[in-house]
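idk why but the lab printer keeps eating my pages so im just putting this in chat instead. protein + iron/sulfur cluster:
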Amino acid sequence: MDNSRRKFLKIAGLSAIAGIGAPTAFNSLLKGEALASSSGGGHGVEAAPTGKRYGFAIDVQKFADDKDLAQRCINACHSTHNVPDYGNKKDEIKWIWTETFEHAFPDHSHYKKNEALHDMPIMTLCNHCDNPPCVRACPTQATFKNSDGMVLMDFHRCIGCRFCMAACPYGARSFNWRSPREMDASGKNYKYIKNPNPDFPTRMRGVVEKCNMCAERLAEGLLPACVDACRPTDAIVFGDLNDPHSAVSQVLKEKFTIQRKPALGTKPSIFYII
Ligand code: SF4
Ligand code: SF4
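predcted complex ->
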């Protein structure tokens, strides 16, 4: 039995003995308690050592004005990252997707709603939370905050326990119930990944996945694929939220923005211009 699996079983056992259910665990995780300390500590969430905190400003109106824009973003992201399409909702894997206003912003939904706003497609993705409960929930450190504050996955360390999925209050994580690597009848092509990108890994059955903020593209000096797909519009603006001169900081200074479920204290790094 490898180390990570042994550690997981220990935590799973402790959680079961303690009777930690998903909502209770989530509340503890937000406060920075619980599973990390019960496993002997070592994977608390710390501020990014570089002082950076990457984030997005998403202009909701621009997605309403151009009905194809959301799908272009989804296609760009999913084809870049070999996101499998299993062809049904139950098995769906999504890194970026659209939600209704009510689902995305339950705190802002109200009686006598503004129909125009409530009919808008809201682009949603992992919020790369500054206080990410998913990171604390993961017993193997398969999900972690990187040196620039992005919340990432090491697919090889994922043991498929789905604690991170239970801890994420945004539904930003998907689980591969099936194998994304299944081949078609010819035995030459992936069945669920059309035009695979050879520069990005495919995943296995039993692995959780989500938006990685295009860390691999940023490393090459490129913008995230969804930001690129919006060009020439600036429907999604990307940058360092901690840099007052960055494009995203400028937008936040000038526009009124909201975050998803701010009352939960996860501190999302995705802001919406409403
Ligand atoms: S949105 Fe969910 S998966 Fe993304 S960092 Fe926040 S809690 Fe984790
Ligand atoms: S930042 Fe990259 S991985 Fe995240 S949604 Fe946009 S394209 Fe997908």
